[in-house]
Amino acid sequence: MGHDYNHSHPHNYTVSGKNIGVVIFLNVLITIGQLIGGIISGSVALLTDALHNFSDVISLLLSYITNRLAKRKSTVQQTYGYKRAEILSAFVNSVTLIAIAIYLIIEAAERFTNPQPVLSDLVIYFALGSIIINFISVLLLKKDAKESMNIKSAYLHLLTDVMTSIAVMLGGIAMKYYEVYWVDSILSIAIAFYLIFSSYKLLIDSLKILMQFTPKNINVEDISKEIETLNEIKNVHHVHFWQLNDKDIFFEAHIDLMEDINITKFQDVLMEIEKILHKSKITHFNIQPEYSRDDSKNLIIQH
Q: Distance between CA atoms of 151 and 174, rounded to whole angstroms?
């Protein structure tokens, strides 16, 4: 027997498709511009920034597509709908970004041993253009990033781009006035390590959700003990906690009742359990009632 509780405001929030569309267009322009600029100028740092922006384009496209999929209604074939699509997208984005960063570190390290002259003026101009456009993109997605892990992954990509483009521009200035062309490789390596650092947490968070780990803000023992304080409940066992996405937390458990109560009385018990779970922002739960059943009463059952 189960009960479902939904928080109204986060689930009714709609991510702006128009904002994502504008940001995608802006990042396509940046990517093309920096690729051309990097090839002409001979700057690995500018090419690194271009690849970073290209990853943003992919990230944003996935964000838009999965956001649309997540709004589809559940069916008998997809009882949860496509809600987990956003988490899968966040995971793919993180893995892709880290993989690109590792590749760029290898390329920049090879270039560092044999520095090549760079057309620094082009590096400065293209980096400045990237700073301006990415900053506009960050502002467009700032509000949506607070409501969706998927959009947050794209937002972090863009925010990182602003910082890396500033570094590339400063490197261009250093090469222009001091001819220290090895700076280009150093910047590429620094940007790549920053990409890994900024993506790691999102990678771990999305992986934990996909693996159905207990959410980090949930204390299984404390919640179970609080449910056991209810007069009608003797024991809570066979407990499971997991997340469907970055908002929906699920709880499942068997409860051993003190008495052989009827359905009406059990509904009152469910209401009390709901109040306890609501405090931990658990949005859905399913309870299996039991009375004098001979089974394991362990909190976590080893299957």
A: 35
- Are 284 and 245 in contact, with CB atoms under 8 Å apart? no
Give pLDDT tens digits for 178-211. 989 899 999 888 878 877 887 888 899 999 999 9
**Domains of the chain, CATH where assigned:** 14-210 (1.20.1510.10), 220-290 (3.30.70.1350)
For 1, the token pair is: 């027997």
> What length does the chain have?
303
Cβ-count burial of 193 within 10 angstroms (0-12 exposed, 13-18 middle, 19+ buried)?
A: middle
Question: Average pLDDT, stretch 260-288?
Answer: 94
Tell me the whole-structure pTM to 2 decimals: 0.73
At residue 15, does pLDDT exceed 60?
no
Instruction: Kindly give the pairing relationship between strand 2-4 and strand 284-290.
Output: antiparallel
Task: Give CA separation, 128 vs 23, 45, 124, 163, 189, in Å.
Answer: 17, 13, 6, 11, 20
